[in-house]
Amino acid sequence: MKAALLTGIRRFEMHDVPTPKISRDTDVLVRVTTVGVCGSDIHYYTEGRIGDQVVKFPFLGGHEAAGVVDKVGKSVRRVSAGDRIAIDPNLYCGQCDQCRSGRENTCRESKFLGCPGQLDGCLAEYVVIDERCCFPVPDHISAEDATLSEPLAIAVYAVDRTLGKTGLSAGILGLGPIGLSVFHVLRARKAGRVFATDKIPARLEKAAGLKPVWTGNPDRSNVVDEILSREPLGLDVVYECSGDPPALAQAVQLCKPGGLLVIVGIPETDEITFPIHDLRRAEITIFNIRRQANCTQKAIDLIADNEVAISDMVTHRFPLDRTGEAYDLVAAYQDGVMKAMITVST
Asked: Taking 90 as the threshold, does the pLDDT of residue 346 lie above it?
């Protein structure tokens, strides 16, 4: 089969590699249709690592994906050949203390698609995954929307774990695919006044359709002063979705006393500093988000029931043999890119 392999920093090459085989009774062979380019993929592309997850080249990445079931193992009951599916990239053990407590996202034996040293990713014509990772989608959901259910599931998890009740004021710092997904879920969950920031004008424009109270560019204005002038008591919850250290400091300033800072974005650096006295005096809680747990079906349902409309998040499309161009575009934030989608098959 054809696969786009990362063979070095900022270098993709097309290769013919063996088509994966079903080896376990619960395995599913999936013909990949679409793969989304995620910000975490870009870390591997530009840096070769995220923390201690270090790429060994050649590397088959990509974890946001949808496809069509080709074959199934003899014990599979969840899906059948021909089913269109969204893929949950996290294969959890189901047995450890974390899984037993409903925290499959922090499973001690987790294997993740397109993660160094764990499982091959989806930038190929076929992938083998466990049936637990397969989520059938209705016929009226496109392959691209099925793919977008993966970042949307993270947003569902982040909001459902932290919003608490309807009507709360919220900030979103960073309006990339995750930040915009968080905004969609906040609207679906009936949050109150929402403020949002980003450095890319096209992303601020895209967020305007969700009717924020105010949006701004931190490179062009003092976003903290602007938001607090409109919400003087501060925000109930701030979702930091950019991974940018200065944005984390802004989030602290924006939270009201007793507020919640939710870290969703992945910083490029290994260590982050906080204004500790501001944190402690305001008794601000920091909540970290690690992927998601039990939210893929919730995300699919939100799309299927038209509670969120995320199709326009896809701004650029590439065939598999132009994967490098897609990654370059996203890495450089060029041409107003929001989500680049790679079409593997139709």
From this structure: no
